[in-house]
Amino acid sequence: MPPCFLFTLHALFSVFTSFFQIFSKEHINLLLTGYFFFLGVLALAHILGPVVNSLLPAAFPNRKYHLKFFEGDGEIMEDVIDYQFDRRDLVTLAICGLTGVWYLWKKHWIANNLFGLAFSVNGVELLQLNSVLTGCILLGGLFIYDIFWVFGTNVMVTVAKSFEAPIKLVFPQDLLEKGLDSSNFAMLGLGDIVIPGIFIALLLRFDCSLQKRPGGRVYFYAGFLAYIGGLLTTIFIMHVFKHAQPALLYLVPACTGVPLLVALLKGEIKEMFAYEDNPAPEEKPAVEGEGDATQDATAKEGSSKTAEIKKVK
């Protein structure tokens, strides 16, 4: 094992242990609760905005507002906040705010999952992969990372169980016995949703680039069904062995292997790896003699200006 890797592990472990020695778990959870309350309300409002707008009647007295906040004075004044919203957005924000208060007051698992799903959808929407090769490299690295931090140490499990924050989705295992007051939960980290999600979103954009060909959204559905299969496998293994499992151990081979196998069977493996979502603009080759013509024109313009100056003198 290389020394730099050992040094990195030692540094991470030192930060982790010293952080809990300085601050108690209660203070850390209090800080995270307030932080995720504001982020969760905004993320949920972004997701529920179109739904609330469609449910409000046409007779709703809507008005638009414009919020501006400047920094500086005079000519050096700069916009810090320039945000436009209306009363429909305020209704959405109020509904999401009530959900946030419910989360603060009860820490209910449904409110936790609403915020967690909102974070996941916003993450898939904001993050973007440029190519399938980049996605495979990213998923491969996180595949090893997840296995090490779950099986090699107890850091990942300790953090997931200690922090009362919507950084994970929880699924009640005693729902039939206790109903909504369940207390025994299985957990799924948001990274296990967002990371495969941005890869599956890339597959959807690759399908859209092949619109002229028959087959529809084959790679998107293949990746999506593979994700469901990998997730069910994770739950099954966790239930059998009664131990926390790194979800990416099962999700990464499924989400990458199945679409690649489909591309191999369809004979489109080269096109898949050649696809780029945002290709760099190609530089136009310089036309031979164009540079000389430009220099001649510049020289003639300079000589004409010199002649005009002499005439003025």
Characterization of this structure:
By secondary structure, the chain is mainly α. It is 68% helix and 9% strand. It is built from twelve helices and four strands; from the N terminus they run ααββααααβαβααααα. Strands 1-2 form a two-stranded antiparallel sheet. A two-stranded antiparallel ribbon has the order 3-4. A hairpin with a 6-residue loop joins strand 1 and strand 2. The radius of gyration is 28 Å and the shape is globular.
Topology:
Elements: H1 3-22, H2 25-55, E1 64-71, E2 78-86, H3 87-106, H4 109-126, H5 132-152, H6 155-162, E3 168-172, H7 175-178, E4 185-189, H8 191-209, H9 218-241, H10 248-266, H11 269-274, H12 290-312
Antiparallel strand pairs: 1-2, 3-4
Distance between the termini: 80 Å
Secondary-structure element string:
HHEEHHHHEHEHHHHH
Overall shape: it is globular
Low-confidence blocks of residues: 305-313
Task: Give a quick rundown of the structure.
The protein is mainly α and 313 residues long.
Labels describing this entry:
two-stranded antiparallel sheet; disordered C terminus; single chain; globular; 313 residues; 4 strands; mainly alpha
